[in-house]
């Protein structure tokens, strides 16, 4: 009966995918950006794609304060499987690198209060050249993943045609629902179709997938982060309405803690992904992460904003000639998050504005908290001018809560 109940909403065109999952953006860890398709366990046992890597990352999530903050998914990306399906046509993990099997890995992850994600590809091969999921294997693979105890599936789109994608992505949604196991479904479909209408129909996507990759893979560089930010906010009129509880735009992994971002740029990625209501899927080595990167990723107020139950994606509301940009995300209980972002490359910049200029309601008063510094600025009126100092390629991020207006005493005339 559960499987039937889960499958029903797909027959109703006007509702989002109601598997009841991903009501807030998924959070966790993912192997791809940092560890790629390193399968050389002979030469590099510590960093190759093997069960050991995932056991160790699960330990870190459970023991280093990540799980309590909501980072719950341990996600295997490409290159986990054997090069061939077995005699029954089933996907099998590489026997040398995953000798215990995926079910044992899922049990290990679950025992630590975490969830396991896995990777598939709708096509002849995965992007890394491993067996893909052709249309005739969709049902079988969904059942295999469910039997293993998988909690999330990322379905890539290498080596498939637009027609196969149009058939296969909805079919996998039905197949996952039919297993009766709650499995969050991440689709790469729009990324392979250019991410924009008319080729991409976001109404249909929201009925099929819990999250989807719209654009290019992130690389370990600030240029890559900027190109993603540019594409998402240039196209915000199309993308922003598509997101909400149960169905999210995914600008790809957090690369904070790796090699390519400075401290300021790391803070910027975290703030911009949060304002976008993006999934927070870290791809870094949690065994060796620096205290400063960890502090950014474990910022409680930041995570609270990212996980806001309204699930409204933010927008860029100002783009100044001075290369300062302002982003706004509406939050529950009439709160908001503001991000002041500098694209300057010279020196810290003092930016002056008011909440009135940013179209906040007239005559309102806000308590403002600096998300990174923690400092509270009491009673900021909409009409008041204020200044923030923003470092090059850095951000200042504010959390604003409306304050009740004091009752004005009446003066007897």
TrEMBL record:
EC number(s) from the headed UniProt entry: 3.2.1.-
UniProt GO BP: glycolipid catabolic process; glycoside catabolic process; oligosaccharide metabolic process
Subcellular location: Lysosome
Entry keyword RNA-binding: no
Coiled coil ranges: none
GO function term, MF aspect, one: alpha-galactosidase activity
The entry's keywords: Disulfide bond, Glycoprotein, Glycosidase, Hydrolase, Lipid metabolism, Lysosome, Signal
Protein name in UniProt: Alpha-galactosidase
């Amino acid at each position: 009966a559960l499987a039937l109940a889960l499958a029903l909403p797909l027959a109703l065109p006007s509702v989002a995918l109601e598997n009841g999952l991903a009501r807030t953006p998924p959070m966790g860890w993912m192997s791809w950006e940092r560890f790629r398709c390193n399968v050389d366990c002979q030469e590099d046992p510590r960093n190759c794609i093997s069960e050991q890597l995932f056991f160790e990352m699960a330990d870190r999530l459970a023991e280093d304060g990540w799980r309590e903050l909501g980072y719950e998914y341990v996600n295997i990306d490409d290159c986990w499987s054997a090069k061939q399906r077995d005699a029954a046509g089933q996907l099998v993990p590489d026997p040398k690198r995953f000798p215990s099997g995926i079910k044992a890995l899922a049990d290990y992850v679950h025992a630590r209060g975490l969830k396991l994600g896995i990777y598939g590809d709708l096509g002849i091969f995965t992007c890394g050249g491993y067996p893909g999921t052709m249309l005739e294997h969709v049902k079988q693979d969904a059942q295999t993943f469910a039997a293993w105890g998988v909690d999330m599936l990322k379905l890539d789109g290498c080596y498939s045609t637009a027609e196969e994608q149009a058939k296969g992505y909805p079919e996998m949604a039905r197949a996952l629902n039919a297993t009766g196991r709650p499995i969050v479904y991440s689709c790469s479909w729009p990324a392979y179709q250019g991410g924009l209408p008319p080729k991409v129909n976001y109404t249909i996507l929201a009925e099929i997938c819990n999250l989807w990759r719209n654009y290019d893979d992130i690389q370990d560089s600030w240029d890559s982060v900027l190109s993603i930010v540019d594409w998402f906010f240039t196209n915000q009129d199309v993308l922003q309405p598509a997101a909400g509880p149960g169905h999210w735009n995914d600008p790809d992994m957090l690369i904070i803690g790796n090699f390519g971002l400075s401290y300021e740029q790391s803070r910027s990625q975290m703030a911009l992904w949060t304002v976008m209501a993006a999934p927070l899927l870290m791809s870094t080595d949690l065994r060796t992460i620096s205290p400063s990167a960890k502090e950014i990723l474990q910022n409680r107020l930041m995570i609270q904003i990212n996980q806001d139950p309204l699930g409204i994606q933010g927008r860029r509301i100002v783009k100044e000639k001075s290369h300062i940009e302002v982003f706004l995300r509406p939050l529950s209980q009439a709160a908001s998050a503001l991000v002041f972002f500098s694209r300057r490359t010279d020196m810290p910049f003092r930016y002056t504005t008011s909440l009135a200029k940013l179209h906040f309601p007239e005559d309102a008063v806000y308590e403002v908290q600096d998300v990174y510094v923690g400092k509270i600025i009491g009673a900021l009126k909409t009409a008041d001018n204020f200044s923030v100092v923003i470092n090059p390629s850095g951000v200042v991020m504010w959390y604003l809560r409306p304050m009740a207006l004091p009752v004005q005493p009446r003066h007897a005339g």
